[in-house]
TrEMBL record:
<dbReference type="GO" id="GO:0005886">
    <property type="term" value="C:plasma membrane"/>
</dbReference>
<keyword id="KW-0963">Cytoplasm</keyword>
<feature type="binding site">
    <location>
        <begin position="269"/>
        <end position="272"/>
    </location>
    <ligand>
        <name>GTP</name>
    </ligand>
</feature>
<dbReference type="GO" id="GO:0006614">
    <property type="term" value="P:SRP-dependent cotranslational protein targeting to membrane"/>
</dbReference>
<dbReference type="Pfam" id="PF00448">
    <property type="entry name" value="SRP54"/>
</dbReference>
<dbReference type="InterPro" id="IPR004390">
    <property type="entry name" value="SR_rcpt_FtsY"/>
</dbReference>
<dbReference type="InterPro" id="IPR042101">
    <property type="entry name" value="SRP54_N_sf"/>
</dbReference>
<dbReference type="InterPro" id="IPR036225">
    <property type="entry name" value="SRP/SRP_N"/>
</dbReference>
<keyword id="KW-0547">Nucleotide-binding</keyword>
<keyword id="KW-1003">Cell membrane</keyword>
<dbReference type="InterPro" id="IPR027417">
    <property type="entry name" value="P-loop_NTPase"/>
</dbReference>
<keyword id="KW-0378">Hydrolase</keyword>
<dbReference type="GO" id="GO:0003924">
    <property type="term" value="F:GTPase activity"/>
</dbReference>
<keyword id="KW-0342">GTP-binding</keyword>
<feature type="binding site">
    <location>
        <begin position="123"/>
        <end position="130"/>
    </location>
    <ligand>
        <name>GTP</name>
    </ligand>
</feature>
<feature type="binding site">
    <location>
        <begin position="205"/>
        <end position="209"/>
    </location>
    <ligand>
        <name>GTP</name>
    </ligand>
</feature>
<keyword id="KW-0472">Membrane</keyword>
Length: 317
């Protein structure tokens, strides 16, 4: 397929290759054992492949889709050698991702019609939400945008302090109140401040409590309503941050948050050092929500805009 011949940014691609190394190595060591001594893709190979994909946290429903696509290729081509399986997997998974990711951004861009562009970030504590916000702020600022952060996760003093540290590190203003303050009030103040400063991007952190979904739903709805008093169509993006290293637990979090609020994009973090990189494929497919960013390292530059072709190329290289 011609899109795999695309030239990728070498530095970014090296980071992605390294970040997915463990997932790729684990996947292919299992695949090699499954096809050892076999010359063609038969039912036994497909059964083994199904187990491998599920074990890589692609998820059962998405795995069955992939297997069905490969079965169709086998029926169509009459004979499919095991040496061709890697390329077929690349093509079919890229095609699957294309159903959710059409014309996605390749850089840290914001729509020109939205100013300020308001991004509300949701996710449970511990998934790398605050770190993702900090890295996003860095990347947007690096792209030439004026950024303002809002510390609306007021239920944990640590969350406010963490965001302050990132604001100082990146060199962007932050709007914060005391712990226990009304999150909607913080969001309102943040947007007012951003408008006054003629900011390009506003990133609002929110609390990550899932133990009471109704409270979370009501709180996020209130934050949205109050923001719209300042910017009529805010938020322009609701970004759910998921920890890729938790595998199936990330699926459950996605399920809970998409039930609590309208999630429009995903960031999957901590993909480096885990063998669960397949979770990106499964979550994107099952929830039909585009993965916008992936975290493939601890460095400030290691949050990348997700590109389906680069991802598949690195995973199946």
């Amino acid at each position: 397929m011609s899109f795999f011949k695309k030239l990728f940014s070498s530095e970014k691609k090296e980071t992605l290759d390294k970040g997915l190394e463990k997932s790729k190595t684990t996947f292919f060591s299992k695949l090699s054992k499954a096809v050892a001594g076999k010359s063609k893709v038969d039912d036994a190979v497909l059964d083994d492949l199904e187990e491998i994909l599920v074990a890589s946290d692609v998820g059962v429903a998405t795995t069955l889709k992939v297997i069905e696509r490969i079965e169709n290729r086998v029926a169509q081509d009459k004979y499919l050698g095991t040496d061709e399986l890697n390329q077929i997997l690349r093509e079919e998974i890229a095609a699957l991702l294309s159903e959710t990711h059409s014309g996605e951004a390749t850089e840290f861009e914001i729509p020109k019609q939205n100013k300020p562009y308001v991004l509300m970030v949701v996710g449970v504590n511990g998934v790398g939400k605050t770190t993702t916000i900090g890295k996003l702020a860095y990347q947007f600022k690096k792209a030439g945008h004026n950024v303002v952060l809002g510390a609306a996760d007021t239920f944990r003093a640590a969350a406010i302090d963490q965001l302050q540290i990132w604001a100082d590190r990146v060199g962007v203003p932050i709007v914060r109140q005391e712990m226990g303050s009304d999150p909607a009030s913080v969001a309102f103040d943040t947007l007012q401040s951003a408008v006054a400063q003629n900011a390009d991007v506003v990133i609002i952190d929110t609390a990550g409590r899932l133990h009471n979904k109704i409270n979370l739903m009501n709180e996020l709805a209130k934050v949205k309503r109050v923001m719209q008093k300042v910017v009529a169509d805010a938020p322009h993006d609701v970004l759910l941050v998921l920890d890729g290293s938790t595998g199936q637990n990330a699926f459950e979090q996605a399920k809970q948050f998409t039930a609590a609020t309208e999630v429009t994009s995903l960031a999957v973090t901590k993909l480096d050092g885990t063998a669960k990189g397949g979770v990106v494929i499964g979550i994107s497919d099952q929830f039909q929500i585009p993965v916008k960013y992936i975290g493939v390292g601890e460095g400030i530059e290691d949050l990348q805009v997700f590109n389906k072709y680069e991802f598949v190329d690195s995973f199946f290289k």
